Amino acid sequence: MIRRLFWVGVGVTVTVVVVTKGRRVVARYTPQAVADRAEGLGRDVSQRSASFLATFRREFTVARDAREAELVAALLAEGQAHPDDVRAARDVHPKHAAGTPAVDPEAATRADEDELGYSF
């Protein structure tokens, strides 16, 4: 009698576990659950991509600025003013008053070359 009760208990327990796990599996693979998981994965990929791009842009900008500073330092002669300083001074004190005819672009380029001390 005890043996029968034991096996009936084991059978009930196994049945409950199988039904519970089965419901979870069925719920997991219903169309709505699959759509929710896909949406969550899409959101995660989007966030990771945005984070990667922001980090890449930030690191690229820092590296580019450092390389630009190296190149400017290598190209400038001893005692030569930095090109940004020359341009800023030119913008503050323009040679031509407002309302005068526009300057020829080639002449402006030649003037830049003369002021900056080098040409490419």
Automatic annotation (TrEMBL):
Region Disordered, annotated ranges: 89-120
Q: What is this protein called?
A: Secreted protein
- Taxonomically, the superkingdom here is Bacteria
